[in-house]
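Hi V.,

You were right to ask for the full record rather than a summary. Here it is.
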Amino acid sequence: MPRFPRREQEQKEMFQIIHHADNISDSYAKIIIFVLFNLSAITFSPFYERIKKIKFLSLHFKKVSV
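Predicted structure:
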């Protein structure tokens, strides 16, 4: 049983789209899809949540100090 079944399903769909783009031989579509896929991976990672918290806290402290 995969730990993140939804995420793995999304990965499979993305790879299917990439292979489809490969069949069309449209390299731009592959690049765009790859970039979007990586952005979504970063966005949903807990690391991104930490970055958001740090940014929020730093903005909060800037407001307090001003």
